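Summary for the steering committee. One of the milestones for this cycle was to obtain a three-dimensional model of the protein with FE2/S2 (inorganic) cluster bound, which we needed before selecting residues for the alanine scan. The sequence and ligand used are listed below.
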Amino acid sequence: MSYTGTFRIWRGDTDGGALTDFEVEVNEGEVVLDVLHRLQATQAPDLAVRWNCKAGKCGSCSAEINGKPRLLCMTRMSVFEPGDVVTVTPMRTFPVIRDLVTDVSFNYAKAREIPSFTPPAELAPGEYRMAQVDVERSQEFRKCIECYLCQDTCHVVRDHEENKDSFAGPRFLMRVAELEMHPLDVADRVPAAQEEHGLGQCNITKCCTDVCPEGIKITDNALIPMKERVADRRYDPLVWLGRTISRRRG
Amino acid sequence: MTATARSTGSRGVDSPGRAAIRARTLRSDRWWLPPAATTAGLLVFIVYATVRAFQQQYFFADERYLTPFYSPCVSLGCAAEPGAAHFGMFLPDHPLLPYAALTLPFLLLFRLTCYYYRKAYYRSFALSPAACAVPEPHATYTGETRFPLIMQNVHRYFFYVAVLISLINTYDAVVAFRHPTDGFVVGVGNLVLLVNVALLWCYTASCHSCRHVMGGRLTHFSKHPVRYRLWTWVSALNTRHATFAWITLATLILTDLYVALVASGTITDLRLIG
Ligand code: SF4
Ligand code: SF4
Ligand code: FES
Ligand code: FES
């Protein structure tokens, strides 16, 4: 089944822009990215849109469809009725470059602020041994495709530009959790989670989890467990006492 | 369409550098419905619980059913219903002091600092944010970094107290099988109390702090097989924590209502055994 769909697409750059209407052919089985490619081929050859894999794996095609952060290549046209207007805008948390393309370097800067994997000094690469149950929690977080939709939707930075300095965002707080839970990482990451990466600013409202195309339970499995670890260290005198007496690391 | 020029000095999605889009949100679905429903649901419970906690009447039925809203009954006023007080009566009988004034504040704080209810009321009451990708109305935001919200970090203490209170509720449900004159009896009310207490345990055990205490805080599960097993069980429950949060609000109201209706003589408790 084919029909002509109405698309309202933001076109512009740092100087300003507007939502522009297009009538484009839509065919059965297509995703929003297919339609944007047809639009480029037929009416708007200069439309800027970033993509790579068209398989939900590279994380390049992040944008907002009808106001919701989504991957263009994983949003099926079948979720809309033929009469619906489909609005597509760039992500609204990052600076725009042109049309649907944004500058996501905020995320690369945040990634660099996290000290890398720190194995025990006495182990050489190749000698790493770990039990599957120990590394399983960290592995869930490795499914991340770095689409930054979670960073885009998080109200801490989306609604408050000034928090970008102090807040790493869900993707990178999850990176801290991944390393903190890793059986072979010996760095102490708990104080920095709160003091340097802004964990306390997260109010666990779960929008990051809601938009993650990989279905990672960011809030339940990374952010809340990290908040509990921070509470162990800073807000729980009993745990602090226990640690001081036994000096043991679980 | 006219081009939207960039306005300077704006905040949030209108900040300089971001795509200039006039609409604060372009969501076309009914995003306001979940927060509105949450607000309505929480208000129903708050109003019902407040009225009942201060009513000081109809809390003990058939000489054996004690409603969870009055457990443990430790006010001198509990003497009005012989057999309702299992743990002594020592609080003054005052209209502004609920008969279970020893435990109700802790249960309130347990739920107030619960990770799920935090999400629920941050979204529905504080609109922070009301829905994903819908701008919040606040000019500044510090999350849970300052007083009073930094106190959310002590949630685990209320969890410990809630475990004790759940034990008391369990005791209430068990002793309710004994009628002072008829001995061992089973009525519909017993089943109501049992279901209620079972669901309260599901809510309490699925708590994120419980998950952390059971094993979440460990780095090497392989060295602690028992705690790992406990952690897996709690984790399975934990994925349904929000569901239990809502179910228990409903069962608390229904259980209390059942006891109140029987106590006031509006309905009769059906005896199944005895
Ligand atoms: S749960 Fe925390 S990190 Fe995730 S979107 Fe909400 S505030 Fe941001
Ligand atoms: S955590 Fe999910 S939403 Fe966030 S960057 Fe990774 S894949 Fe994207
Ligand atoms: S194009 Fe690779 S994720 Fe969409
Ligand atoms: S009771 Fe909800 S997280 Fe603890």
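Key point for the committee: Chain A has a mean pLDDT of 95.
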